[in-house]
DUF883 domain-containing protein (Sphingomonas hylomeconis), 72 residues
Amino acid sequence: MSDATTTSTPTTTTTTSNSKTALADAFRTHFSGDAPLTDKAKNFAKAKPWTSAALLGVAAVALLNTFRGARN
């Protein structure tokens, strides 16, 4: 009987994005790591300008709606 050694190669899993998880994957890609938050936000805005504009627009509308309800 001979001694056979088995070597296992590490398996890498690649996750494919669909339209529902693509934004979450983009956030995870751009906002992970040790860089300052401002650099991460700039990199995300450069990579996804339309998404950044839409996100900023939604935040602006939400802020304006909070001011609108402050009347007596």
